[in-house]
Amino acid sequence: MRLSALAVALTLSAPLVTAPLAGCASRSEHADEGASPAGPGASDRAATAAIVDGKKITLGELDKGIEEQLAGARATYEMAVFEARKGALEAKIDELVVAAEAKKRNVTVEALVAQEVTARIPELGEEELKTFYEQYKSQMDGAGFEDMKDQIRSYLSKERQKTRERSFYNDLRKASGVKIVLDAPRTKVEAKGPTRGPADAKVTIVVFSDFECPFCVRSIPTLEQVEKTWPKDVKVVFRNYPLPFHEAARPAAEAASCAGEQGHFWELHDHFFHGGDLDLAKARGVLTAIAGFDVARYDTCLSSGRGAEIVRADQAAAEKVSVDGTPAFFINGIRLSGARPFEDFETVINSELSR
User: Fold this and answer.
1) C-alpha span between 169 and 116 (Å, rounded)
2) Alpha helices for 44-144 (secondary structure H)
3) Domains of the chain
4) Which residue, 170, 180, 182, 179, is CA-closest to 98?
5) 328, 318 in Cβ contact below 8 A?
6) How much of the chain is in helix, strand and coil states, percent to nearest 5?
7) By the 8 A CB rule, do 326 and 208 touch?
8) Is there a cis peptide before residue 122, judged by omega within 30 degrees of 0?
9) What are phi and psi of 123, to 5 degrees?
10) How many CA atoms lie within 13 A of 141 on its CB side?
11) Phi/psi class of residue 333: alpha, beta or left (left: φ > 0; alpha: ψ in -120 to 50)?
């Protein structure tokens, strides 16, 4: 139990977790689209799929009316292929640059890594272990600090090693003049919705999110770091994708959308995500405190269903591009799914800015 409790605690540690696909899954009505992408012969619309009473049913006939579903399935497939190739490419580049550096220094790769990575990892102090324990104490299943200390030390040591290793490999890449030309598939997504950042930004991030999704909450500090890092080059566009099993997510999305009619979407966005309280009465209180905010207009927006219309339009846009969970990001059309670390955004954004 204690081991599993620690695992839960580590999973919730946003700055330390790098699992790229962590996110809230949707029970999408098209949940299996990505599982069976267009196969051999799918482009031949005249190909026969079945024969009924001597009459052929062609792929072209089947494709009529499901173009968006097919496009979503192909996009999912293409991204999966890209991710697999990218992972293999990253590993190959690291292998080559570290081997070249080891040869230059006339040492083995193992000796080089020991010298530049292992030997440069600072020791963990008792206070750091206690700080981590206290931060996640409520999720330690009642285990005391002494019971968890060794496991916490092991985890944090591995994280430090990965961080130092990545930094060393990145330095080698820069020195070697590595240039990655493998390009990710792009999806056309309308950047329509509340926006933070300059209108003429070179990079647009469209995010489909759910106010009740814990992984969306975890992504907020990362997005804020992105905005601070590239204040003149990046804009973030928010679109709603409340999941059906998050009962408070849809009302919150409608409330934020109605606040957005008067230019105050982000006040509720920040209230919901930072405070974690989706109570609409409290949200209304946040809005009434804003000078000049028309509360009656806001109430009418909610009661008339205008907020619901905005949310439905966002959901339709999400399904059109095969979003099946939250958060889902599109960086100039390049998809990133789940609560991704800042470094993943950094890689894509820097690549886009250098184009």
Assistant:
1) 10
2) 59-63, 67-105, 109-116, 126-135
3) 2-13+71-176 (no CATH), 195-353 (3.40.30.10)
4) 170
5) yes
6) 55, 10, 35
7) yes
8) no
9) -70, 145
10) 11
11) left
Residue 47's contacts (CB-CB under 8 Å, 6 or more residues apart) are: 41, 58, 59
Task: Compute the distance between CA of residue 172 and CA of residue 98 in angstroms, rounded to an integer.
Answer: 7
Give residue-wise pLDDT tens across range 135-154. Answer: 888 888 889 999 999 999 99
Look up residue 252 and give its DSSP letter: H
On the question of pLDDT at 30 being above 60, the answer is: no
Residue 314: partners with Cβ closer than 8 Å, 6 or more residues away:
193, 208, 239, 240, 241, 253
Closest by Cα among 284, 283, 285 to 272 = 283
User: What global pTM score does this model have?
Assistant: 0.68
Encode pLDDT of 174-196 as tens digits: 999 998 888 889 999 999 999 99
- Give which of 100, 76, 58, 331 is closest to 219, Cα–Cα: 331
Tokens of 244: 């059906």
Q: What span, in angstroms and rounded, lies between the C-alpha atoms of 97 and 78?
A: 28
The answer for residues whose C-beta is within 8 angstroms of residue 126's C-beta and 6 or more apart is: none
